[in-house]
Structure prediction request, 702 residues.
Amino acid sequence: MLMISGESFANNRNDLGNFDTIFITEKNKFIQAVKVMPGDTAVSYPVIRNFEAELNRTGVYVENIQSLTIIEKEKAKRSLMYFLQAVNKKIEKNQFHLFELSGALLAYQKVLRTILQHQPILPVTASITLSNCQLITAAFTQYNEASLLTDITTFKRVSASPEFILQFLEANPDFRFADSLLLEKVLHDPMSVVYYLRKADPILQSKIKRSDNTYIRLLASLSDNKYAKDLAVFIPHMEKGMIREEVILEARAEPAKYFQLLVNTFLQSRQLITPMFLQPLKNGIRDKAIGFYVNEINHLHNATDAVRFASVNGLRPEDLYFIITTCGDELYTSSFLGLYNRFISQLTDQSIEGFFDVVQGEKFNVFIRLAANYNVLDHFLDKFSPEKKVELLRSYINNIEKDPATALEKAMDIADSFGALKGSSSASEIMYAEIANNFNRCVSEKNYLGKRLYGILNDMLPLTKSENDLQKLWSVLGNYEVLEYSTLSSLGKQITEVVLFYGDDDGVASFSNFLKNYTDKTKWVLTRNKQWISIQSLTNNQFTIYANLPLDIDQQADVGAQDSLFNYLEKNSLQPSIVIHRGHSYHLEKTLKRLTPTVKLTILGSCGGYNKAISIASINPDVQIIGSKKTGSKSINDPILNITNTLLANGKNLSWPSIWKELGEDFKKDKSLQTQFNEYFSPSQNLGLFVLKLYNGNNKVL
Prediction:
């Protein structure tokens, strides 16, 4: 059992009351809680031992300050006990991760030292996270600085949700950091402040107009300007004299010129302005990318490319790059691929080598992630010299632990990128080497979060190279090469599959194609009502397929039909264990809302289904997922459904390697179909999902 010595916290007096008893109780409570937290004990135990050592050092530090009275020393030690109590409460609520411990204790130690030395607190708390500020506020309630710490924590909490800042200030106009909150609002969404000044609370309006902050006053002066929306994103640059109003207004006459002005101003000032003051420009680039280009390109998904992408004619590579990287989640798969092809076609062998210098590395990781998700990463990296390829991959992989808030997501992205580069042995070897280097670095630096994440990548990725090695991975994660029949059956008997269609032209055609697989009346019996159908297997009466009719999408009758179907399932206590999405990627969010933890298999028939794999896994971490990294097609979806449903109708397990092999043989007859099928991923190819499961797993070591 890990123990924390109590000696460092006791002084020579016997009048500390029950402090030692309470502290030891909290310490034991902490250790027991941490023992059951998910994680590899080879990593978690050193984290706990380090935490133990730091607690003891803190006690020694307080005891050795000769200028403190006995009462002041007791007060400081009690703050440590309150800190530990606050940590325990967060652990109980599942709001705290093992790897946050060292950062939280370091933040506490900084504030303790600052208070005991009678130094200003604000500079110390500037870089402390909201979560750690909450712990610190709880720790120092007995100090005069408690009120200030409470307000600092409130500021961080409110600024983390900027959409509520004005509402908060209406209720608390005399808040200590009102001006700072107003500045956060101006930088996050300047036009909401302009609209507010035109119609809202006169008291807060007056406060905004009389603010000591020059950015806020400048924005307030634009409140009656009819061009305020186009000017507001340039507020920091206008205030510094870096751009004039007439230059902005001249550019706004043409969408391309205005968008390029946004991009140019951002790149020219990226090294000159504090990052927080670049946020309005970043938001402006994204908003105009959506408004000028993405919405139209998505909307014209049935048009010819010449018509669909006409709006981006004349844009430079850096313009296209910012459209792609700021709007990745909004782009349809075909929209992404069309923009990517235009972006690449404009870069010569010479210009591509220095392209990321042109954009100063901005959104680099986002672009690599998107390229991997849409299966064009190999194509992109092949455009570079071997030396530059190493440099790019090294930059992508290095130092993910530096930002704990995004470290896990970046590790998952690296795994997915590795999967996208399996066809390139040179790129894979570079990734192996860089992951190993970073793992060793984190071990040497005793960075436990980095050690855990790079350790997972270092152990897992080599196992994906061969069938024998994969068995070791499955022994830890569960076998993603097989989905057992018994796993799919609800309460050990009924298997319910739901197929969701949408009422556009493609959905109607897809539904018609789908029905052709169930015309054999010796195997299937089909029942229809006005909104949905059921298809009962005659060879296995415990297997039923339900599908909504693709009714009028303009009237939302298709979604209404889905509602009717799910109401029927709920009334009859039928829980879907398989959900199939048959529609374009822009319908996928509606399907995802139908998922429940009972779903064990999802087949995403839309384009770019891979991008939603992690969202699905958050609903059920053990779900198995099939989809496409590029273009979904009924010519691929129907054969997948046909073979899986035939196996289930015969009470068979789903063995994905066998299914993939059989489908691969069939698609060899048509090169176009074979190419499309190669873009599909089976459940055993979700490497990012496997990183997530290993990270959250309890003592799951490969």
